């Protein structure tokens, strides 16, 4: 691969994607708050919805969590993989989560294609996301299947590269030895991150964690509240 | 004591003629936008019947409202732990099939059809997909079908009846139906608010109106499942939930909500009451049969000095306390006790009360004349065509005593009026009926007046909204100058 192109993909694209990600999501939140929605289509089709969205979300959350762990604590992952059975457990769990995601994504796409009402509310940006996600999930599963022990080599190649990005001294050369599929997976991930703020994926950023500690009832006063009021 | 003011409503079912004018008034004002066509913030259903959405009262399927073991109070549909799985796929959410798929007709077919032997027809097309559809159901397809095997027989309230009673209810000469107009109840303990993961739903402190903040709603759909009355709707186009707003822009300018204003039978009453918010969680844990009385007990007497003092301490304006004194709600619910909440066993404490229907008033034909002695003219309320158990399940959480009281008092008022206007009922008979119904001549007169004669200002006692004291009045008017009602400038569109 051309050196300059390689530098663009692994030294420039990540910054470009992150810049777009932060600038646009924040600006969109400030100006177009109304557009922050998961845009659920469960009302229009309630049965196939379950078999698409549930496996997809659980699968992708676990897979993402795995990537984050390997990024944050690579030494611990390598240490864990020191014993073969533990490596097998980790790898097969990761592959199973990938397949779960794939199963969900296929169901989501099939539902969107076959159900007339949900097709109606599927926008071009949704189709682009499905395409990017399909590439991402498929390439991820193929990497896991064809180039095994990724949990180990990720920690020794991709993690240092990611840290080099964090330190603003990108070292694209660290990825040179990676197979093409893995490179596709990485590039597509940055494309996905860059495209993220323009899509319904922003619902990930407004996950309602305050629900876990807020009081059941919510009362909003139009006038300043006197101190004697109790909150139910 | 934490005194708050709440706008409440009374619907007098004996006066409802099922004309759907209210529904149309609401539809024309609020829900004729893309994504809201299937919503009827106000609908009128025939009881017995399955209602809209179909079988909404079946909480085994829809899991609406609260449940309690006497110690804690939990939503049926979700909880802090269950929110995680529920957020991907809400398990008890109704789908559009439970409402209906809205449609219009392709009227252009009428004048673009090629010349032929037949009249051209306008094909029905779905308002979701725009494609031709076979119409299967609509929001009021149960209209007047009191004996229908499809609608009436599938009414979830029939559970309260024995098989024998059910057969009697559907015997052809006893067939009965009445109308149940429904809007959001603006509950004191709203399940939709408690369920919203984003905190988008809220109750307005000043008047208790329950609203959805369109900027904060993220389409997690928990409110739709949690509301036992199925009065929060999901707008499939904007990806936001919407619900009845009790026409607050009208209320704030002293006008009655559109459905109230347009009501042909003048069945609707609106006014505010003061209530004690401190006792809400306590009474919500009481057993079913105590709930009607418990809800009444937290409504506070606006003439009681202690209540007035508490209201002032909480910043409730004198004019709002004054309108609570004149409120028709206070009279119907607390003084006369003839208005009852729908399905209070859901424990949301709805603030829409129904005066149960006294139907039908029987008369006997003898030789071409109506037999006019008391027994023939006014059948015993116990012999009503709709069994007490059925009405009790609908309006009193099975506590039929509350229902009997309301029906008996209404009957006594009729008998008293018959004595005064027609005169074929003796004074003694009228007084006996009043005494049995815990009613006096004065009270009977007041009930008669507010039921039969009430003009606009008697039916709607709208508390002033004191906008001059509101927080937004203190903000920079230039900021609000060009925002369009929603509080933000751009038209609400789907996605980015």
Question: Could you write a compact summary of the structure shown?
Answer:
Chain A is an all-alpha fold and 232 residues long. Chain A has eight helices and one strand.
Question: How many whole angstroms does the radius of gyration of chain B measure?
Answer: 24 Å
Query: Could you name the CATH class of chain B?
Result: Alpha Beta
Determine the number of helices of chain A (DSSP H or I, runs of at least 4 residues).
8
Top-tier CATH class of chain A: Mainly Alpha
**Oligomer description:** heterodimer
* Relevant CATH superfamily of chain A: Transmembrane di-heme cytochromes, Chain C
Q: How many strand elements of chain B? A: 17
Count interface residues per chain for the largest interface: A-B, 56 and 69 residues
Residue share in β-strands of chain A: under 5%
Question: What fraction of residues of chain B sit in β-strands?
Answer: 5-15%
Outline the structure in words.
The complex is a heterodimer of chains A (232) and B (496). Chain A is mostly helical and 232 residues long. Chain A is 66% helix and 1% strand. The N and C termini of chain A lie far apart (64 Å). Chain A has one domain (3-212): Transmembrane di-heme cytochromes, Chain C (Fumarate Reductase Cytochrome B subunit, Up-down Bundle). Chain A has 8 helices and 1 strand; from the N terminus they run ααααααααβ. Chain A has helices at 3-31, 48-72, 74-80, 84-114, 116-120, 124-146, 150-166, 180-195, and one strand at 219-220. By secondary structure, chain B is α+β, with helices and mostly antiparallel strands. Chain B has one domain: Alpha-Beta Plaits (2-Layer Sandwich). Helices cover 30% and strands 15% of the residues of chain B. Chain B contains 21 helices and 17 strands. Chain B has helices at 21-29, 59-62, 83-88, 109-112, 163-169, 191-195, 222-226, 248-251, 258-262, 280-283, 291-298, 305-313, 318-325, 328-335, 374-377, 388-395, 400-421, 427-436, 441-453, 456-459, 477-480; strands at 3-12, 43-47, 66-68, 73-75, 103-106, 123-126, 178-182, 201-204, 210-212, 232-235, 240-243, 268-276, 299-300, 352-355, 364-366, 369-371, 460-461. In chain B, the strands form 7 sheets. In chain B, strands 1, 12, 13, 14 and 17 form a 5-stranded mixed β-sheet that branches. In chain B, a hairpin with a 2-residue loop joins β15 and β16 (369-371). The longest helix of chain B has 22 residues, at 400-421. Chain B starts with a strand and ends in a 16-residue tail after the last helix. The model of chain B has no long low-confidence stretch (mean pLDDT 90). Chains A and B meet through α2, α5 and β1 of A and α3 and β8 of B. β1 (219-220) of chain A pairs parallel with β8 (201-204) of chain B.
